[in-house]
Amino acid sequence: MLELRLVQGSLLKKVLEAIKDLVTDANFDCSATGFSLQAMDSSHVALVALLLRSEGFEHYRCDRNISMGMNLNNMSKMLKCAGNDDIITIKGDDGSDTITFMFESPTQDKIADFEMKLMDIDSEHLGIPEAEYHAIVRMPSAEFSRICKDLSSIGDTVVISVTKEGVKFSTRGDIGAANIVLRQNTTVDKPEEATIIEMNEPVSLTFALRYMNSFTKATPLSSMVTISLSSELPVVVEYKIAEMGYVRFYLAPKIEE
Amino acid sequence: VNPQRQITAFFSKS
Predict the structure, then answer these.
(1) Which of A10, A132, A212, A220 is the most exposed place for a label (fewest CB within 10 A)?
(2) A72-79 vs A10-19: helix axis angle to the nearest 10?
């Protein structure tokens, strides 16, 4: 028996919009810790890890660890039927091949349930080791989204370099080249407008912009994004989900020519 | 064109 009641149902809607273009089918895992997912894109270049901690739910009942295979496009279709202010409850019975999403309007005058078929998904769970990163950049998520979008109109790849000067995003394409440098900036009115660069060692890595742009679909989840870089490791692009957890995207670097 | 690596080259099956 599974019953997860999320008062801020819009968070789940946003999570699905953030990941559904990257991953088609995925197993959602439910345990005492929370509601989580780990999945790779079809070409195994990127990985998404989601955690919604049990404490973030108003009511969280998960009698035993369970893994539920879902088609994310179908799940998104159903969650789009929930209002932005709706409370969403995820319900499942042991051994059932379906899951129910219940949507309650804030005034309790409309209650809907949508039943979705589950599927068997063969997925490999990867162990993600704790790592020391050479550089960690924390910046406004909208700014990161803007940079990825702007650069992708010039080139296909982005070189992200962190030095003591700041963080540089560069691209090159048929029509020319572009470089965007951000310096650390903590003298802002609001903390969510700050850019904070933590550098242990200079680092420079090349990534496919197509994936970076896909990650920025998570922008509505968080005003800030954290980009962790280490040579010889996938970059981590993390969007924290207020009070609840995170969506982390891992992207394997391209090999430098 | 820079060749693309895969995630599985960095993280192993748990």
Answers:
(1) A132
(2) 150
